[in-house]
Amino acid sequence: MNLFLLQTAVSSNNTANYLPIALQLLFALGFVVLTLGATHLLGPSRKTSDKLENFESGIEAVGNARQPVAIKYFLVAILFVLFDVEVIFFYPYAVNFRELGWNGFMAVLMFVGFFLCGFYYIIKKGALQWED
Question: Alpha-carbon Rg of the chain, whole angstroms?
């Protein structure tokens, strides 16, 4: 009986099972190509000096783009990643905390410890103090 189930499971995994995925990818690719082609053919194409000029956020560029950036931007990015990763890992733990038991609790305590180390680093570097 077990041999029959094994043969059935192996024989059911063939290329016909991937046909719906392939069709969906083809339709998606076709839609993208059709939409881009239609906008290129039907849309206006007027290249003026105003459209070809570089700007950022609606403001004319001033100076060199390769000037040093304040470290506070990077510290805010680290802070965002810390809180983002915290939420990503706490949610599955909160859903499954009974099944994980004490080993899961200890792993979460280690995670919180590492998280607090990073948060302490951010505070010591002054990322939360906006006035100089």
Answer: 27
